[in-house]
Amino acid sequence: MVRDTYDRELRDLRVSVTDRCNFRCAYCMPRDVYDRDHVYLPRDEILTFEEIERLVRVFAGLGVAKIRLTGGEPLLRHDLEKLVAKVASVDGIADIAMTTNGSTLARHAGALADAGLDRVTVSLDAVDDTSFRGAADVDFPVARVLEGIDAAKDAGLTPVKINTVVRKGLNDDALVDIAGAFRGTGHIVRFIEYMDVGSSNDWKMGDVVTADEIVATIAGEWPLDAIEPNYPGEVVSRWRYRDGLGEIGVISSVSKPFCGECTRLRLSADGSIYTCLFATRGTDLRGPLRSGATDEELVEIITSVWQERSDRYSEDRTGVSVGLPKVEMSFIGG
C-alpha cells in the first residue's frame, strides 16, 4: 500500500469518463462559461475503455479497491456498461460505483447492474420541478431523474445515494422537502456544503450553509441521532432518523474538513491524475501509456505522485488559496 507525506493510503480511484454534461448546474458548469462555444475534449484525447481498464489494473496492484465512475455526466459516454464489465473483471476491485445526474439512468440501470456496477449516487439539488429546472439550469423534468432513482433501486444498485449541494439562496429553504421525499425509501440523502471547486462558479463563503445548520434544520422536523461511519475515512457524517425511517448524511468539507483521512486519487477523462479535488495541476498518464510504457513504469509514475502528495486544501483554505486557478469539477469528477 503506497502512502503519501501524511501517511495517507491510496485506496480509492475516481475515473472521469467524459468532460461533457447535459446539465448546467451553477456550482459546476455554469452556462455563461460552458456555452455553445465551449470547446470539449476531442475524442482522440479521451482515454479508451481499454486504456482505463489497464490503468485500473495498475492501480489495483497498488492497493486500490474502490472505483467510482464520474464525469461530466458519465452516462453520456456510449456503452458505459462495457467499461463497467471490464473494471469488474479486475482482481482486487471490490466496489464499483457511479455518480450521475440521473437524466438517463432509467434506461441504463439494468444493464449497468448486470455488467457489475454495485452502487449509484444521483446528484439532485431539488425535488420540486420548478426549483429543479432552476438549479440544474435545464429544460428537463425532475420526474425523469426520480424514475432513474426508482430504476436503480429495482436493479439492485442500492442503497441509492442522493447528493444535494446546498447553497444559500438556491435550495437552503427546501432541505426538509428534499429529505422528506426520500424518508422511508431506503435511499440516503447526503447534503454537501457548497465548495469552491474549480474557478468558474463564483464561490463565496457567505453562500455556504454549514453541516451543523443543515442537521439542525432537518432535526427540527424529524429528530436525528448521530451514528458511526461505515468505514474508517468515510467523508460523510451519518445521522439516523430517531423514528427509524432511514438516515441522512452531511459532507462538511468547508466547515469541518477531513483531508487527514483522504485516500482518493482522480483520473481525468484525458488521462491525467490529480491528488485533490482542488488541485491546480495534474500528472499525465495518457502520454506514457500511449508511448509504450510498461506497467512497472506506470506504477513508478503513480507511486512518485502519491508519495510526494502533501495537499490538504480544505484544511488550509484561505483567502489566498481560494483565488488560485483550480481544475474544474466537470473535468475530474466530484
Short summary:
Helix content is 30%, strand content 17%.
- Strand order across the largest sheet: 7-8-9-6-5-4-3-2-1-10-11-12
Query: Which spans of ≥5 residues are poorly predicted at pLDDT below 50?
Result: none
Query: What portion of the residues fall into strands of 2 or more residues?
Result: 15-25%
What is the count of structural domains? 1
Distance between the termini: 24 Å
- Given the C-alpha coordinates, what overall shape results? globular
- Record field, number of beta strands: 12
The total count of helices amounts to 12
Q: Rg from C-alpha positions? A: 19 Å
How do the helices and strands line up, and which of them pair or pack?
Layout (H helix, E strand, L loop, with lengths): L11 E5 L32 H13 L4 E5 L9 H9 L6 E6 L4 H11 L3 E5 L5 H8 L5 H13 L6 E6 L8 H8 L5 E6 L17 H9 L4 E4 L9 E5 L5 E5 L12 E4 L4 E3 L8 E2 L1 H5 L4 H13 L5 H4 L2 H4 L6 H4 L2
Parallel strand pairs: 1-2, 1-10, 2-3, 3-4, 4-5, 5-6, 6-9
Antiparallel strand pairs: 7-8, 8-9, 10-11, 11-12
Helix pairs in contact: 1-2, 2-3, 3-5
